[in-house]
Amino acid sequence: MASGDDGAYIRFIMSGEASVMLKDGDEPALSVDIMKSGDIFGEISFLTGRPSPENAELVADEPCSVLEVPAAEFEIILQQNPEFTISLVKNLARKIMRLDRMVLRSRQKKRALQSLISREEHIFPDYVIGDYVRSQLATRIEELAHSDGPVLIIGETGVGKEVLAHAIFRLGHHYKSVFLLLDLLRTRYEQTFQVMRNEELGKERDVVQEQMQLFFGIEEPGLNGRPKVQPGYVELTEDGTLLVRGVEQLEPDVQEELLEVVCGSGTYMRVNGEEPHPARLRLLATTELHPDEITRADHPLLHSLLQRSIVIPPLRRRRREIPGLVSHYISQYCQELRKQIVETPKETLKTLVNYSWPGNDIELSTTLKRAVLVSEGEVLRPQDIYFDLKRVEGTGKFNLLRFQAVRQAMLSPLFPAIFQSAVTPFFFILLVLLFLGPQDPLNNPAALFSWAVGWPVLIVGAFIWSRFWCSLCPIGTLSKLAKKIIALERPFPTALKNRSDLLIAGAVLCIIWFETATGIRNSPFNVGLLLLTMLFSAVIVAVIYERQSWCRYLCGLGGMISVLSKGSFLELRADRNVCISQCSSNECYLGTPQREGCPFGQVAPKLHSNRFCKLCGICVKNCPHGAVNLNLRLPGNEIWEMRHTNTGTAFLIIGMIGGLLSEMAIKMPLYKELTSYLPLPDMLKFTIIFFVVVLTANLMLAIATVFSHRVFDEDFQENYSRYGLALLPIALTGFMAFHLYYLINLGVQLPILVSKNFDFEIFRTLIITVPPWLTHFFQQLLVWLGLLWSLMIMYKLGRGSHERFSTAMYGVMPHMGSAVVLTICVLKSIRFYFYGN
Sigma-54 factor interaction domain spans which residues (predicted)? Predict the structure, then answer.
C-alpha cells in the first residue's frame, strides 16, 4: 500500500502480517504498528474524507491475503449493520490509541538510536583491504554479502576485520539502513564482561544478565504502572546491520540466546519482558580466536557460524602485498600531512617486508604515517621506520618530571609565556638604547649588556639549559605573534630543508666573521641594526612559511646555540616504547584543538638531538600518554650515543673553532706578518685569514680521519662526522672562556654605568674587580676541561667501534692528537688576544 491512500477502498487483512511504516524525510522508514489477520486498513481516510499521510505506507512482512471492499459498498454495510458499525468505531479508537503509543515508542527508539550512534565511534580505521583479501576472498565476500544471514570474520588484531565487515554491509541489501558497532573489546566492556572462571557462580549470572540487557533490552516497572522500556542493540538495529567486535567475550548462555534469535526463531524477549518481539537485523561478528580454538561448549554462536565465516590471514603471511600497501599509505598520508615522498628505496621496502608485523595492517598503517611525519626529505629512509619495541630508553638519565612541581610548571599554560612577556619588552628597550643612546659602547648600557652579559649567558646557557633561550627569544615570540595576523603556512622549500645543516653552518660562520670583520662591538647602532634586520627577516619567514621555519632552518644565532646545546646535561625526550605501542594520533606533531603542534615540526619519538628542541614544553602538554620526559643526563651523552651522523654538523663545529681562532688571531704577531704582504683592505685581509684557518682546522680533522677510518673499517664520512662532533666540548669551552673575559671585565662596567647615571648607591656594592691572572686561570681551566671532555667522548666512540682496547686506542689516537693541537692553539690565542703575550 503506497502512501496517500484516498479512502476509495477498505481493506481487511485475511491472513499474514504487515507493518505500518512512517518515513521522516530521507531517513529510513520506521515501523510504528503491526497489522495481523482480522485488522482493517483505510477506514480512517473513509471516515475523515482525507487521504492517509504522505509519509505512511503499509508494507507486507510476509505473504498476505487481503479482502478489498469499495467504499460505497462498505458504507451500505455500515448502514445495514449498526452493531458492526459500533464495533468498528471501538476498534478504531483502540487502534488510534495503540498507534499513538507506537509512534511515541518509535520516536523514543529513534532518539536512543541517534544517541547511541553519536556516542559510539563508527569511524573505521584508515587502512585498506589488501590484494590478498580482494583477490582470494572476493567470491566468498560477495556470496555472504548478498545473503541475509549472519557472518563471522576471523583474524588477528589489525588485519582489517572491521573494514571487511563494512564492505559486506555496503554490498548487502541493508546498505541504506542503520549500521551499529558494538565493541566488546573496549576497556569499559572488559570490566563488565570478562569474568574469571574461578569466581562465584552468582557473579557470572550478573554478567550474563548485563550482556542479555545489552543485546535484548530490559523492561522495568514504571511510575504509572506501565513498563519502562530500555531498548537493546537488537531492537535498535531494526532492519539494519549490527557489527559485534570481539564476540568471543560473550558468555556461552548469551551466545546461545543470540544464536536462537538470528538463526532460529527470529524473535527475542526483553529482560523481564513477557512478549516476544521480531528480530530484524543482520549480524556481523568478528573474533581474534583461531578456528581451532572455537568449541561448541565455550562458543556456541561462533561454532555455529564457522560455516558462514571468512578467515583473514595475518600480514606476515601476505608479505607480497606489503609494497602495494606501502605505496597506498604513503600517497594517502603525504596528501593528508602535506608532505612529499617521491622515493621509497629498496632498503626501506626490505626493512618493511622483513618485519613480522604483530599488529598487522593497522600497525603498518600507523608506522608509515609516523614515518611520513618524521621524514626530512623526499626519500623515505629505513631510519624513519620505528617498530622496535624492545629498545630500552633512559639509561643513566633522571626524569625531572617525576617532581610534581616541575611537571605542573611544564603543563601550565603560563609556561613559557610568562618568561616571554618579560623578555620581549626588554628587547624593545634594548633597541631604543642601541639606536638613541650613546654611541660609545662603554657608555651605552644596551651595548654593554649585549656583549658583556648577553653573549656569555647564551653560551653558558646552552650548556646549562640547552636551547631554552630560543623559547624566550623575543624575535621568535614576535614572529609567532605576526602569524596570528597573517599566516600563509606554506611548506618550507624541501631543497633548503634538506640542506638546513649547511644553511645553519653558513649562518653561524657568518655571525662569527661579521662580529670581527665589521668591528660591530664598537658600534651600538650597528648592533641595533643587526637585531632589527633579524627581527624583520624572522617575521617575513614566519608569515610565509609554516611553524617557526626561521628559528629551525635559518637563524644563525639559534643555530650556534643549538649545536652547543648538544653538550648540555638537560634534554627533552620521548619514551619511544610508549609512543610506538600506544600512540597513533601524534598530537606532539599535529597539535590539539587547544594547542599547536611542535613549532620545529618534530615528532617526539623522532627527536634525538637537542638541536631540534627548544624546551617549550608543547609536546609535554599535548601528549595524552605522558611519554615525554625532561631528563638530566651525562654531558656528552648525546654525542657518543648518536645514531645518525651528520657531516654538516661536524663541519660547523670545526668551523666554530676555526672562527674563534681567527677572531683572536688578529692580535697575534703572526697575523700582522702574514697580512703585511697583502695590499688589501683590513676586512678582506681578515676574510682570507678566516677562511684559511677554518679550512686548516677541517684539514687537520680530515687527516686524522684518513688514519682512523681504516682502523675501524668504516666509511670516511662517518668517521669524520663522529669524531668532528666529539670536538664539540672544545668549541663550547673555548667560547665560554672567550666570553668569560667580557663577562668579568665589561660586565663590571654595567653597575658602574648605572650608579653613575642614576645615582644608585646600591649598584656600587655590586662592583667586583677580578685580577687578570685569575681570569686567565679560569679561562685555561675551562679549555683544559673541554679537552678532557672531548678525549673521553673519543674514547667512548672508539670502544664502541671495536672491542679490543689496543685497536680502539690506535684508531682514536689521530683524533686525540688533533684535539690536543686545537686546544693548545685556543690557549695561546686567548693569551695573546687578551693579555698580549
Answer: 136-373
Question: What angle is formed at CA 33 by the lines to CA 27 and CA 35, rounded to 5 degrees?
Answer: 130
Last residue of one domain, picked from the residues 599, 625, 640: 640
Pick the range with the lowest mean pLDDT from 508-522, 629-643, 646-660: 629-643
Helix, strand and coil in the chain, % to nearest 5: 60, 10, 30
Look at the chain and report how many structural domains it folds into: 5
CA-nearest of 746, 713, 721, 731 to 790 is: 731
- Residue 566 contacts residue 638 (beta carbons within 8 Å): yes
Residue 233: closest CA among 396, 155, 153, 119: 119
Above 80 in pLDDT, residue 576? no
In three-state form (DSSP H/G/I as H, E/B as E, the rest C), the secondary structure along 282-305 is: EEEEEECCCHHHCCCCCCHHHHHH
b/e per residue, 665-695, with b = 16+ CB within 10 A? Answer: bbebeebeeebeeeeeeeeebbbebbbebbe
Classify residue 390: in a domain, yes or no: no
Beta strands (DSSP E) in 1-83 are: 9-15, 18-22, 30-35, 40-41, 56-60, 65-70
The 10s digit of each residue's pLDDT in 215-238 is 998 888 776 666 778 888 888 888
CATH at 332: 1.10.8.60
Q: For residue 785, is pLDDT > 90?
A: yes
Q: Which of 575, 573, 574, 581 lies closest to 389, judged by CA?
A: 581
The answer on 783 and 697 residing in a single domain is yes
Helix (H, G, I), strand (E, B) or coil at 714: coil
In tens, the pLDDT along 72-119 reads: 888 888 888 888 888 878 777 777 776 666 666 666 666 665 555 544
Q: Are residues 686 and 749 in the same domain?
A: yes
267 and 138 within one domain: yes
Domain of 230? 131-313
Collect all residues with Cβ–Cβ distance below 8 Å to 277 and sequence separation of at least 6: 235, 267, 268, 269, 270
Strands 267-268 and 56-60: unpaired
What's the whole-model pTM score? 0.63
In this structure, the strands spanning 240-245 and 179-183 are: parallel
The pLDDT, as a whole number, for residue 131 is 60
- pLDDT reported for residue 601: 86
Determine, yes or no, domain membership for 514.
yes
